[in-house]
Amino acid sequence: MAYFTEDASVETVNARVSESADPRLQTVMASLVRHLHAFVKDVELTQAEWDIAIDFLTKTGQICDENRQEFILLSDVLGVSMLVDAINNRRPTGATENTVLGPFHVDGVPEYELGANITQAGGRETCRFYGTVTDLDGNPVEGARIDVWSDSEDGFYDVQQPDIQPRNNNRGVFTTRPDGRYWFEGIKPVSYPIPDDGPVGKMLGKLGRHPYRPAHMHFIVSAEGFDPVTTHTFVAGDKYLTSDAVFGVKESLIAEFTPIENGETLWESNYDFVLHRAT
Ligand code: BEZ
Ligand code: FE
């Protein structure tokens, strides 16, 4: 099979791979070629369509810099990020489910005492977040690290508006007490569009898809001896829950946000995290 034919396209390409290549790489590439060729044959791709695809991928690469990763966004809107996440984070029933990390997590943010307010500017819809971290048997997890971040009331993360929002606005790290409890103040998050001024946004527009994510608070909950959980809690009732642009919503992650009368905050939201022991 030295020469390429339409019928034997897959075998011809895969036969070129050296047997000394990394075995996992051989497996992954052989499958990629098989599926890619099947796709091209299935839709009988025209030359003009392939040119458009190459131009799209070129523009996707060209818009990337240290602050913008358009390929991850592409993976997100195609459901690939959530699929990889699902395959790599299978957990027993009852353990808190994962969802996408997203591009706006920041390392090294301030660690606060329980109860602190993570909103430094622009927080009208104040909210108290609270709950517990336990293991699958309901035992409290002391010293769990809870890393949280949300958008502002205008729907932007601090890193998207470095000249407008203070650094680390709506971010913080907390540690659970011996009884597994955590609590902190922030704002009730709002729904927002993913960055849609690039090729991925254009593609969504052509597909008649909106770029919005339902309102959510991001969490990474980790503790010694347990699988870390990267997740969000989603605001119950949000109009984008069933059409999240990046497919991140899971029913178990939808949390009630309840208005409070005469409280220190206008809203409160309870969510209990359940960690699975690392195997
Ligand atoms: C986020 O929730 O921050 C996010 C996730 C995926 C793409 C864009 C934003
Ligand atoms: Fe987000």
Automatic annotation (TrEMBL):
<dbReference type="InterPro" id="IPR000627">
    <property type="entry name" value="Intradiol_dOase_C"/>
</dbReference>
<protein>
    <submittedName>
        <fullName>6-chlorohydroxyquinol-1,2-dioxygenase</fullName>
    </submittedName>
</protein>
<dbReference type="InterPro" id="IPR015889">
    <property type="entry name" value="Intradiol_dOase_core"/>
</dbReference>
<dbReference type="Pfam" id="PF04444">
    <property type="entry name" value="Dioxygenase_N"/>
</dbReference>
<feature type="domain" description="Intradiol ring-cleavage dioxygenases">
    <location>
        <begin position="129"/>
        <end position="157"/>
    </location>
</feature>
<keyword id="KW-0479">Metal-binding</keyword>
<keyword id="KW-0223">Dioxygenase</keyword>
<dbReference type="GO" id="GO:0018576">
    <property type="term" value="F:catechol 1,2-dioxygenase activity"/>
</dbReference>
<comment type="similarity">
    <text>Belongs to the intradiol ring-cleavage dioxygenase family.</text>
</comment>
<dbReference type="InterPro" id="IPR050770">
    <property type="entry name" value="Intradiol_RC_Dioxygenase"/>
</dbReference>
<dbReference type="GO" id="GO:0009712">
    <property type="term" value="P:catechol-containing compound metabolic process"/>
</dbReference>
<dbReference type="InterPro" id="IPR039390">
    <property type="entry name" value="1_2-HQD/HQD"/>
</dbReference>
<dbReference type="GO" id="GO:0008199">
    <property type="term" value="F:ferric iron binding"/>
</dbReference>
<keyword id="KW-0560">Oxidoreductase</keyword>
<dbReference type="Pfam" id="PF00775">
    <property type="entry name" value="Dioxygenase_C"/>
</dbReference>
<keyword id="KW-0408">Iron</keyword>
<dbReference type="InterPro" id="IPR007535">
    <property type="entry name" value="Catechol_dOase_N"/>
</dbReference>
